[in-house]
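worker-03 picked up job from queue 'complexes'. Input manifest follows; two sequence lines, order preserved.
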Amino acid sequence: MEPLAVVTRDSYVESIHYGYICVVNTSGQVLYNLGDYNTKIFLRSSAKPLQAIPLIKSGAAQEFNFSKKEIAIACASHSGQKVHRETVEKILIKLGLNESNLHCGIMTPYNDEEHKRLIASGISPSPFHCSCSGKHSAMLALAKFRGYNIDDYESIENPLQQEVLKTVAEFTDEDADSIPTGIDGCGAPIYLMSMNKIALSYARLIMHMHNQNSPYHHACKTIFNSMTQFPEMVAGENEFCTVLMQATGDKLIGKVGSEAVYCLGIKEGSLGICIKIADGNERAIYPIVVHTLKELGILSNNEFNSLEQWYNPVIKNNLNEEVGEILPAFSLNLKSQKLLSIGVKYQQ
Amino acid sequence: MDPLAILTRINRVESIHKGYICVTDSQKKIIYSIGDPNTKVYFRSSAKPIQAVAIVNSGAMEKFGITLQELAIICSSHSGEDFHREAVDSILKKVGLSEENLGCGVANPYNQDMINQLIKKGERPSQLYNCCSGKHAGMLALCRYYDFPVAGYNEPDHPVQQLILKTFAELLECETDEIITGIDGCDVPTIMITLHHASYLYSLLAHGSNGTGKYKDAFGIVQKAMVSYPRMINGDKEFCTDLITHSGGKVIGKVGAEGIYCVAVPEKRLGICIKISDGNERGVYPVTMHILNQLGILGDEAMEKLKIWAYPPVKNHKGRIIGYTVPVFDINKSSSTFRIGDKFEFGSGNQWNLWQ
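worker-03 finished. Artifact:
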């Protein structure tokens, strides 16, 4: 692993975030790499755009008349705003199901206003507030469409999850039987895969979107368009994925995962990117993603400027005065990293 | 930098926390270390018991009738509970000041019930809720004792901050201008200090009034305050409070922001400083518990009561345990290599096996 970001205080390095970055093209060729790209990570919620592919390819999305907005929430880790909860509920109504069929569990929404509203009114959060409820409702749609058992739809044994796993395996060039699976925060399976293979899956999602003859063309194009046209569904107001896709039009899709995973698919050049912060702290993800895109020349000046608060997040004291920053500290082109150490003055 | 703790998910390594540990005795001798002990870290809130030494040493406690319980809140990063705020308010009253004189700024309390209460009432927290308000009240007491101006007491060149800096310099036997300072979250200066020196200062806290030098009695009083009133140091269900309480005062621990933790062990006259390099506090608890366990400081009973901090479980949204934060260093062996994605076996000889 390599040092990717520093946290400064009065221009001295107070903390360091190490991690991995891998950029590949559609043939799996590693174009840029920091850290060992064979490192295997749990894909977590960054898997959601891939997990949504069978929903569309199977015909389930068409059968249940999924809108792009609904596809976008299937790919989301949403913040629990009203629009998110209503969209998930609408999917369930179309399936003839309800909240009790969701097995994602209950979590506090990460939208601050909604969180405060719940506390102030003494209401407990519902499964709709869970950031994964969109994915779960999409899985239920596929299960209903195929006639699979919906009582254990999140179990790896359920044919639904096997179908999803097969798609993930195909996109990552792995053998489905050899992918170790774990359980995500929402109870659904997650996959342990190497950085370069994960990056490849995002490159392929873009490739199939471009290739009209591909059997995955429609599914991948729908996912890309849904995420870029309804970015507010993918995370929420003032959340990174949403702001990134709002700022970049239809250039890319970006999706965060727990424990500081981030994946991107870039339209031009059909690139796939996978980033993992080794310590799992999401605060380092934002500057590292923006810096990676900047180094790859993907962002225009305007786009970059509109992402500035994510590029160098400011650390303030309780008097709201700036005392430090989180700064990206790597270059994709440099084989040898700057020598970084806690307690030394940081030279940019 | 060595791995100190890992986060597991279904017996795989998902994330890794690297960092440093230094254990020092009151002769300044390093007993044990991981990583370069000369690495400099911002002392952050772990400096509070030492900053309190300057206050106690002045005689301000006697002059204003500040109690041991109130001294404990001066050493604290409290969670904003009622009794915390009352203690801070009481110090301010004793020195003829009030909440408006605090310069710590407004911050949400980290006690969840307190936050919920504020949200329900639609109120903004006062400065008393700020976890550093006790320290600030102590600094104000010191200002009043010496008749320093109250205004601007946060500034590095204010005489009260210079006095505290001088105390650090004397304890570390260096000049004040050799110490690098930064600004803490509550706006007052925080010093940059090597792990070796930070652990040494905590060994002085461990040694207390049995030590030597002009500050020994002040260290003894601070030690007594922290051991006697652990609820003041952090709050209910918080790590420092639990650690001091359940160890029966054998261990005095104080957290600092960005993954700092310092410990004084009175019976062994040892001081410990830990820094999680990525600054994430979740790594601090199991690493602290593990070093104390490996040094044979905590008995079985204390370990049992503190196990929630020793091997914190990772749960999914349904409350099912799917992983743990597990300490992975061994003071008797060179560090093992841990890679993200590797299998992690809970061997039968390991403490954490009891969770399986």
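worker-03 released lock.
Residues 195-210 of chain A form the longest helix (16 residues).
The radius of gyration of chain A is 20 Å.
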